[in-house]
Amino acid sequence: MSGGSMEINSVVIEDTFAEAFDMKATRVIVTAFDDEWARQAAMAMSGFGTSVIDCKLEIDIEQPVAPKDTPDGRPGYSLLAFAMGGSDLEKQMIKRAGQCVLTCPTTALYAGIDPVGAKRVGLGKALRFFGDGHQISKVIEGVRYWRIPVMDGEFLCQHETGRVDGIGGGNFLLVASDLKIASDAARLAAKTIQPLADVIAPFPGGVVRSGSKVGSKYKTLIASTNDAFCPTLRGLAKSSLDDQDNVVLELVLDGLSHDAIADAMRRAIVAMCESFGGKGLRRVTAGNYGGKLGRHHFHLHEILR
Amino acid sequence: MTIYHLQLRPNVNEAINAETLALDHFERLSKAEIRRLPVSVDQYPRPLEEIFEIECQEAEESRLIVEGDLRRVDYLAAAHQQGEFRVLGDAGNFVAAGMRGGSLVVNGSVGDFLAAPIGSRKSGMSGGEIRVSGTAGNYAAHRMRRGTILIRGGAGKHLAASMVAGTVMVDHCDAGLAIGMKRGSIVMHQPPNSACTESPRLSSPHSFTPNFLRLFRSPEIAAFIRPVIAANAHRIRADLTLGGQGEIIFP
Which terminus of chain A is more exposed, N or C, with fewer CB under 10 A? Predict the structure, then answer.
C-alpha cells in the first residue's frame, strides 16, 4: 500500500465505493434425512435467485449447518434471501418452499430468524393447505409447526420465519489481463466469502460477468450491460479499461449488516490480491451510481485500511 | 422475583382445595397477605399459614414450591400460567387443571384429572409444560387443548379422553385410551394394551417416522422420547369416530 493510492501485492485498489441498497431479508434452515437431500433442496430453493431485477428474490445457501445446530438434529443448510419489499419476500419464499423443499424427499423447513418480536414471513402458514385437511399443527416449546402428510411421511415446516432489514448490492469488480486469472481469482474470492455468516453471493458460483448499469436505450429495460467495463466495447463506448484490462468479473454480496458485507469484501479482496497479484490480476474497483441510489457505501480504501 | 416454599403442616389431614395457590397471584400480594390467604379445607376457608409453613426467598426467577404428602390436596397448579410450579410429593386430583402456561414439575405421582378442565369448562390444559416423575390417575389430559405433558410412569384409564390438541408422553396406560380424541399426540414407551387397540375407535398400527418429536429440546423430554425416535415407531390414529386426526405413537 502507498500514499493516497492503494495497492495490495501490486494490485491497484481504486479509490471508489460500492453502492448498496436497503432490502428485506430472511433466513431459513432446510434439513433432511441426510446431507444429500438437504443440499438438493437448498440448491433447488436458491436456484434462479440471482438478482431482484428479474428473479424478484436474491437467495443463496449461507452455510451448511451441523446436525447439532439444526432444530431437528439432522444435517441442514441455512439460506439467506433478500427482496426489495416484505410482500415480495413472502410471496417468493412461499413459492420456493412449496416447489423446492416440500417436494424434496425427507426435508423439513425451519425459521433461521426468530419470528418472535420481528416482522414475519409465512412458511407453513401457507403451505399447510397442501395437507387438504390432514395437516397437523403442533406447538412445541412455544413455536408452531405444521406437519403435512406427503408420500414419504410428513413434511415438517415451521409456521413462519422472521424478517429483518438487509443490504443488497455490495460489490467489487476484479480487472485482469486474461480469463484464466480472472476466473481463478473470482473463484477464490467466492470461496472466501462462502463460509462466512450473514452474507451471500447469489450469482452463479458467487460471480457475475454481466455487470449492469441502470437504464437502457430500450425503454422497457431497467438495466443493461455495463459498457464501461466491457473489453469488447473499448474504442466504441466510454471505457474504464486500458489495453491490458481484458477481463472483468464482479462479485455481488447481500448481507444482514454493513459490517458483514464489509468484512466479506475485505477478506475476499485480500485473498485474491495475495494469490494473484503480479500474475495478471491488475485492479480492483467497485460499482456505484454516484451515491444517488443506495444509502450504503462501501469505500474500498476504508474497508481495506 | 421470589421463591415461595410451602411445606404442608404434619397435622393437616383434611381435604384441601389448593386453587388459590397461584404464583402470579402470590406476586401481587405482600407476605402478610399471603399468610392470610384463604384456602378451602373441607370446604371451609382457613388462612394459608395454618395449613402450610411458608418461606419466601428473593431469587432471579419466580417459583412456587409445595411440599409434603399432598394426596388430599386437589387443584395444585390449577390455572397456572407463568413461572415454575413445583410439587414435591404425591398430589391429589385435578393437578394443573386448566393450566395455561409456565411449567409444572411434580416429584411424585398425581391423582385423577391431571390437566383436565376446571369445573364445567370445555377445555383442559391450554399451554405450558408438565413433568410428572411418577404416575397419573384416570382421565389425565382430559379435553387437553395445547401444551406438553410428560408422565414418566403409567397413566390410568381414559388417558387423553376428548383431547383436542397438544402432546402427552407416558410410559403406558390402562383401558379407554383416546376415547373421543379429536387431535393431538400421545407418545408411549409401550404399545397400547389389547383392551385399547381392539376398539373400533382406533386404527390399526402403521410404521411411522415421528420427526416432529426431534423438536422437543427440553433435556428430560428429549431423553424420554429418544427410544421412540430410535426405534421403528408405529402410529395408531384416534378417535376414528371423530375423524381420526389424533395419534398414538409407540416403538
Answer: C
